[in-house]
Specification:
By secondary structure, this protein is an alpha/beta fold. It has one domain. It is built from eight helices and seven strands, in the order E-E-E-H-H-E-E-E-E-H-H-H-H-H-H. Strands 3, 4, 5, 6 and 7 form a five-stranded mixed β-sheet that branches. It has a two-stranded antiparallel ribbon with strand order 1-2. The chain is globular and about 50 Å long. The structure holds zinc ion (ZN).
């Protein structure tokens, strides 16, 4: 069984806005197509930058400490493209525009080869009115196994972990089981497929869906899906295994 969690990354200073074509139905987002990104201020350079200087008033404080070249490129690509959690909240609007709300991507050495990544419980400080005063969360990727996976699988793992980060920010706590159950709903499976397709426009619908289900094997949503569509469920598990081993998709070694 493959598990996804989340943890840390450093990144250059950049203020970017991602523009999407969003389709709403009854106030609910049903599709979102990434159009382009506009950025102001100095550009990002390579990741892996740590805290040089004390930081200005407004800075992008999404960080990456990843050194593996392949993982670094894919993580930075997602940071620069951005991820939209809701029509108003994106990876960069939440974590990249407030110096008190920080997200770090890192690589880690896990004891289990089945762990793709993880999200560490956030450090949260609340104001007296229960709003967030400061929030720090770290997303980690398995430095031994992930570089051998397909690029699509690595990006899916990063997206999965960023969803943990978003839910943890929204709920002020990391609740992996509850968050996985929410990810395994129709809305979030569709959201995930869209997020993957923004990065890999030519990926098949089925493979995008397979990646969306990665790491959700312990959820009620998966049990229901498997009971309803046993053949598809088997193919999804197989596709994830092949993406994980780099047999499907584009191998990350470059
Ligand atoms: Zn997870």
């Amino acid at each position: 069984m493959l598990m996804r969690g989340g943890e840390d990354v450093g990144f250059g200073k950049q203020q970017c806005i991602d523009w999407y074509l969003v389709t709403l139905m009854n106030g609910m987002e049903i599709s979102s197509t990434y159009l382009y990104t506009t950025c102001s201020s100095s550009g990002g350079g390579g990741g892996g930058r740590s805290n040089s200087g004390s930081g200005g008033a407004n800075n992008n404080d999404i960080k990456s400490t990843i050194t593996n070249p392949c993982l670094k490129i894919l993580v930075n690509d997602i940071i620069s493209k951005g991820i939209e959690f809701t029509t108003e909240q994106t990876l960069n609007s939440i974590f990249g525009s407030n110096s008190k709300i920080n997200l770090t991507f890192a690589q880690a050495n896990y004891s289990s080869a089945d762990t793709d990544g993880s999200t560490t419980p956030p450090s949260v400080v609340l104001n007296s009115d229960q709003t967030i005063k400061s929030f720090d969360i770290t997303l980690k990727l398995n430095e031994k196994t992930m570089p051998n996976a397909a690029k699509e699988y690595i990006s899916a793992t990063v997206i999965h972990e960023t969803l943990h980060a978003y839910f943890s920010y929204r709920d002020k706590e990391l609740n992996p089981t509850g968050q996985h159950n929410e990810m395994a709903t129709d809305i979030y499976v569709a959201w995930f497929i869209n997020a993957i397709k923004n990065i890999y426009p030519t990926i098949s619908d089925f493979n995008a869906k397979a990646l969306a289900w990665g790491g959700l094997e312990d959820t009620a949503g998966w049990d229901t899906f498997r009971a309803t569509y046993p053949y598809d469920a088997g193919q999804i598990t197989l596709a994830n295994d092949e993406f994980h081993d780099g047999e499907l998709g584009t191998k990350c070694s470059n």
